[in-house]
Write a sequence for this structure.
């Protein structure tokens, strides 16, 4: 079996995945028509360049602009349900069987929805998606770095009410430069006290200090963490505390967290014994799938099938969803995959 077929067939887990970065282009077009949202193009061919970041994208700040159109059409209950449901279908087609999907509710209140409405709508889409595909995992609520801290505090309060209904974590994302995580410490303390697990985007648009702060604020999952390598003490701190880095190679190249894909630190982190996993971050904006990311990690970064399998199981082990569900999946996957002749 060639690598493309092998990675496509592998049962996979993905932890670092943005709902608004993963909306089907055709769905953006249809929802915009239904909801009267103006678009810069009225056919798919011309719309795609507004939804998919190019490889010569200059920075995280530019990358984030590709989320604007999907967010503009995700302002109603049916739209939020639909995109969440469709993402479950797309994940399932990609061989992903465990996923944690994240998004920022404050970006979906422009047309009158409350934070509660937004979270309920995505949970309804998630439940329907799980039912249709057998997907496991949960939703992660994302706070935004450039929001006033009190707005993230109220978001944590609302998110905590859904801790028993499928919301498994609380995240911080957005433009990193000039917005250190520590500004939002109170929101994260509250989220933890309400039973949510903590994940923080750090070490992408800003350096190792941002990763240090994120770990100190209780993050078990650091999203990206590419620049943690700039300070060996921060890497050692991550190792000591068992912190995991959920990296997205194509995205990290597009945001220029790495200058060349082949320089991505993922293999080095892995060899140093750090916990690392592979994700897409945004399937539409980065025009990728998890199987494609695994293939790049094999072909461009030189990792073996066995190493990638270890990273895949790490995603399952390090996830926030119910431990019993993850343990059961792990047994199933190990039985399936390790019984099959895979080669290395
Ligand atoms: Zn991300």
């Amino acid at each position: 079996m060639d690598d493309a077929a092998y990675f496509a067939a592998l049962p996979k887990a993905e932890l670092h995945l943005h709902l608004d970065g993963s909306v089907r282009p055709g769905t953006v077009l249809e929802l915009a028509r239904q909801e009267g949202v103006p678009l810069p193009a009225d056919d798919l061919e011309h719309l795609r360049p507004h939804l998919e970041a190019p490889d010569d994208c200059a920075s995280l700040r530019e990358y984030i602009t590709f989320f604007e159109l999907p967010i503009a059409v995700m302002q109603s209950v049916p739209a939020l349900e639909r995109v969440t449901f469709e993402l479950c279908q797309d994940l399932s087609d990609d061989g992903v069987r465990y996923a944690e999907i994240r998004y920022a509710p404050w970006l979906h209140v422009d047309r009158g929805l409350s934070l509660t409405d937004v979270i309920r709508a995505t949970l309804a889409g998630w439940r329907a998606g799980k039912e249709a595909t057998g997907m496991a995992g949960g939703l992660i609520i994302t706070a935004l770095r450039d929001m006033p801290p009190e707005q993230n505090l109220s978001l944590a309060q609302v998110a905590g009410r859904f801790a028993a209904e499928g919301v498994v974590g609380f995240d911080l994302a957005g433009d990193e430069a000039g917005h250190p995580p520590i500004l939002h410490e109170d929101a994260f303390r509250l989220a933890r006290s309400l039973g949510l697990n903590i994940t923080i985007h750090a070490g992408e648009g800003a350096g190792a200090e941002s990763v240090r702060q994120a770990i100190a604020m209780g993050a078990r999952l650091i999203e990206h963490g590419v620049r943690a390598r700039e300070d060996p003490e921060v890497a050692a701190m991550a190792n000591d505390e068992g912190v995991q880095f959920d990296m997205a190679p194509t995205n990290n190249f597009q945001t220029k967290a790495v200058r060349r894909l082949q320089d991505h630190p993922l293999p080095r982190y892995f060899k140093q014994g750090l916990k690392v996993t592979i994700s897409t971050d945004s399937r539409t904006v980065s025009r990728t799938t998890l199987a494609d990311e695994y293939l790049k990690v094999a072909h461009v970064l030189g990792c073996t099938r066995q190493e990638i399998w270890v990273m895949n199981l790490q995603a399952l082990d390090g996830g926030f969803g119910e431990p019993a569900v993850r343990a059961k999946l792990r047994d199933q996957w190990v039985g399936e995959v390790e019984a099959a002749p895979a080669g290395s």
User: Anything to note?
Assistant: The first strand starts at residue 12 and ends at 18. Residues 115-133 form the longest helix (19 residues). DSSP finds 16 helices and eight strands in the chain. The mean pLDDT is 95.
